[in-house]
Amino acid sequence: VRVAVLISGRGSNMASLVEAAREPDYPARIALVLSNKPGAGGLETASEAGIATAVVRLRDFPDRAECDAEIDRFLREHRIDLVCLAGFMRILTPGFVQAWEGRMLNIHPSLLPKYKGLDTHARALAAGDAEHGCTVHFVVPELDSGPIVAQSRVPILPGDDPDSLAARVLAAEHALYPQALAQVARGEVRLTEA
Ligand code: GRF
């Protein structure tokens, strides 16, 4: 199973997928890392690991649909089976999402359906929650809303601030995403019609 990881920044989740996929019995390999930001740190990590990289910037296209068509071309050129969004900070068009429905995952730093969108750690702290975590889900056109593949929970501890909580959640993300991708790549978890 050939996987593309879409990133916008540091790419630590992408790196955890690359690391996991090095294991001989892992059911997927990372064949492409694509960023919408030319300066994304993760691009260098990926090149160093010998993985093909691409940059597709929205500003180089007349509209979002044309930009997403270019992403789709890269995915098909690299014969990609599954797409993993990992800190990809651009909303994809419904047409693109529908074309990859059931074959595209995202990781989100909250226990969905709580705290869709941004600033999840600060919001969990402000709500006085006792626990927080991360979710891997299938991508559907509505943001952070698709069927859940897997979740991982972490405690919120006295004295936590958004940064300390984010670090705890990120460590959980790095364990969760490779495991969730493996389940989907093996066909153990599938998106079905409602
Ligand atoms: C992660 O917390 C991810 O859940 C969120 O953005 C962050 C990306 O980090 N959507 P990285 O680029 O994978 O290091």
TrEMBL record:
It comes from the Bacteria. The active site is at H108. Keywords: Purine biosynthesis, Transferase. Its EC number is 2.1.2.2. It catalyses: N(1)-(5-phospho-beta-D-ribosyl)glycinamide + (6R)-10-formyltetrahydrofolate = N(2)-formyl-N(1)-(5-phospho-beta-D-ribosyl)glycinamide + (6S)-5,6,7,8-tetrahydrofolate + H(+). GO terms for cellular component: cytosol. N(1)-(5-phospho-beta-D-ribosyl)glycinamide binds at G11, S12, N13. SUPFAM superfamilies: Formyltransferase. The record marks D144 as: Raises pKa of active site His. (6R)-10-formyltetrahydrofolate binds at R64, M89, R90, I91, L92, N106. Gene3D superfamilies: Formyl transferase, N-terminal domain. The keyword Nucleotide-binding does not apply. Catalyzes the transfer of a formyl group from 10-formyltetrahydrofolate to 5-phospho-ribosyl-glycinamide (GAR), producing 5-phospho-ribosyl-N-formylglycinamide (FGAR) and tetrahydrofolate. This is Phosphoribosylglycinamide formyltransferase. It comes from Enterovirga rhinocerotis.
